[in-house]
Amino acid sequence: MATIEDVARHAGVATSTVSYALSGKRSISEKTRQRVERAVAELGYRPHAGARALASARTNTLGLMLPLRPDVDVRVVMEFVTGIVTRARAFDHDVLLVTQAEDAAIERLASGRMVDALILMDVEAADPRVARAAALGNPTILIGLPDDPQGLQCVDFDFAAAARLAVRHLAGLGHTSIGLVGPPPSVVERNTSFAGRLLAGFHQEAERLGVSAAVELTPPTHAGALGAVESFRALDERPTALIVHNEAALPSVVDSIQMHGVQIPQDLSLLAICPADVAQSQSRPLTYIDIPAESIGAVAVEMAMARLEHPDAPAETRLLRPTLIDAASTAAPLNP
Amino acid sequence: MATIEDVARHAGVATSTVSYALSGKRSISEKTRQRVERAVAELGYRPHAGARALASARTNTLGLMLPLRPDVDVRVVMEFVTGIVTRARAFDHDVLLVTQAEDAAIERLASGRMVDALILMDVEAADPRVARAAALGNPTILIGLPDDPQGLQCVDFDFAAAARLAVRHLAGLGHTSIGLVGPPPSVVERNTSFAGRLLAGFHQEAERLGVSAAVELTPPTHAGALGAVESFRALDERPTALIVHNEAALPSVVDSIQMHGVQIPQDLSLLAICPADVAQSQSRPLTYIDIPAESIGAVAVEMAMARLEHPDAPAETRLLRPTLIDAASTAAPLNP
DNA sequence: GTGAAAGCGCTAACAT
DNA sequence: ATGTTAGCGCTTTCAC
Q: Structurally, how many domains does chain B consist of?
């Protein structure tokens, strides 16, 4: 393996010249740059990542901490990951993946100086990782919103606004009773940040608009979805519209509704809150509010990079605004 | 951040003693080891990964190359990843994730000495990455089986044997016409290694046992699944048993069968080839052949580690044998 | 059983 | 615009 010194010798210049020619951190005459580049190509030179990290205190690596909990939808998670990895590459960074939620992992990556910055996914309202990470020197970006985001860098979808938008859309069509097929109970129990915000937004807007609101926390299974639909049908004030925020249950919800001979949207309006491609892969077109998972991942990376540039910039929290895509699975309710 | 020198000073020993006390590479008196360990704890010392990599030519990092193609099922992919990350940690290794299929990424990781070994997922029958990787100094493990695995380290599920087992099981029950709901056409077109082996095993065993065999390559959508089921029903020799090797289509296949009023297994036997948890999350219990994705990932890591220990050991290919779990979704066909 | 010191390959002052 | 050189923090001879 060629070293920078080999390149320098081959090109007849000093090692620092090679370093600078490659990094562009000081001006180099066109002629020497060419010679260096030729030498690099001819020797197939690649800088040694460890040596560079040691000398520069930069690893060009991002740590991604992704607890793989059984109740998270991997499809959605992988969209985040895609956004993160793709955007990181644009900044010439690679991604180190950690799937344990243990604090030890944070320290290993950070104190071992394996990464320049950390991205924490699936943040809970009171997440022990957050304090750990904040105590670290490394920039840390949270995907999600802990109870107290003071002084932390956070990015997430505005789930509260999404729920409000959903309720508003349906109420605007004339619905007065709306059901929410919510996330799995375990997601709510462990205080996942997004679930609480979604539920709060849902109830808040329903109250504001004077529509009645019912929630079913729904396991990510076929049986769970059927159960939720049954529960809503058994209600005195049976909902005329359903909001579904549960990617795994969505197909079964759609199916079970149709199995009852209920027409969408004539008899029942259906509105999904999920990533675009999940909505679009259902058995019928669905009106949905997009969870822009890839964008959120990309923003997380951008925030991390900005932090590396300006370590003292004030912390900011970014919530991405919801947009509704109408595919005619919602309509005015039938007059009784 | 404390360095090894700080620790040495704090413990009143030489830096080399600290190094050896930590690595155990030479014997240390119990007393000094204690002192070193105390100093490490008190200072919160963590070795600098880059410095270590530079001095030892070991990064304790594994590269995982995971092309995110739209036709792969992320659920299954994430099981592989889980197996890999978990097992890697057991060997004190972290995982660097690359999602581009580009050759450039291989060189970056390997020549940049960012990783000790590489694991390539979703290998195609004639995969350009393979030649690149083989040319590298780093140990490389392929998950999948290229056309010519000579001299390469490969691990995969024995899809051919799985297909044969499935056919044999159904033929043994008395079925004489079997349909295969296969992977998406694009998966076959791009010569994904597993798809070809599965199809070959299916046809081979069907021919051997003299049962008629039909295949529908099935897009991973609801519409695709419905289409496949319709096609089979339209056949002159309508299959009395279906093998499904398509995680995304599986739920829709089950639903559409039931929607036709067809009883499983009385009217139609159904056998899935998929990871256990996919089979178990369906709307009814399914007889299935397990794709042990996590185990495969774990084996890949073990092979990589073995390679690091014994770089000159002969290359081996490991194919994991299929097992069938019977959940009564297959039965003898009705006599006409 | 322990220490001293020579690198590993790079970056970034500091020179010129 | 380019060259010289002192580290960065660790591992591993080599010496005792």
A: 3
| Nucleotides of chain D touched by protein CB (<7 A) | 1-5, 7-13
CA distances to A38, A50, A142, B52, B107 from A10, in Å: 9, 23, 46, 28, 21
> Which pair of structure tokens corresponds to residue A252?
């079964």
Q: What is the pLDDT of residues A48-60, one digit of tens each?
A: 999 999 999 999 9
Between residue 5 and residue 64 of chain B, the positions with Cβ below 7 Å from nucleic chain C are 12-17, 20, 26-29, 31-32, 51, 54-55
Q: What is the CATH number for A182?
A: 3.40.50.2300
Both A194 and A278 in a single domain?
A: yes
| Chain C bases near protein Cβ (<7 Å) | 1-5, 7-13
Statement: the CB of A9 is under 7 Å from strand C: no
Chain B window 10-49, residues with Cβ within 7 A of nucleic strand D = 15-16, 19-20, 22-23, 25, 45-48
A267 and A297 fall within a common domain = no
* B322 has pLDDT over 80: yes
Domain boundary pick from B40, B56, B72: B56
| Residue B301: domain span | 61-157+293-320
Give the three-class secondary structure for A317: strand
Over residues A149-196, the pLDDT tens digits come to 888 999 999 999 999 999 999 999 999 999 999 999 999 999 998 999
Q: How far is A105 from chain B (nearest CA, A)?
A: 10
Q: Which residue has the tokens 């199916």?
A: A255
Q: What number of other Cβ atoms are within 10 A of residue A10's Cβ?
A: 18
User: Cis link prior to A265 (omega < 30° from 0)?
Assistant: yes
With contact defined as beta carbons under 8 Å apart, do A253 and A286 qualify? no
What pLDDT was estimated at residue A132? 86
Instruction: For residues B211 and B285, state if they share a domain.
Output: yes
Question: Helix (H, G, I), strand (E, B), or coil: what is residue B319?
Answer: strand
State whether A50 and B53 contact (CB < 8 Å).
yes
CA angle A224, A207, A328 (to 5 degrees): 60
Residue A212 is assigned to a structural domain of this protein = yes
Round the average pLDDT of chain B to a whole number and report it: 95
Chain B residues 110-129 with CB within 8 Å of chain A: 111-114
B191 in the same domain as B134: no
- CB of B54 within 8 Å of a chain A CB? The answer is yes
Whether the predicted pLDDT of A336 surpasses 60: no
Mutate to test the interface with B, among A255, A256, A281 (most CBs of B within 10 A): A255
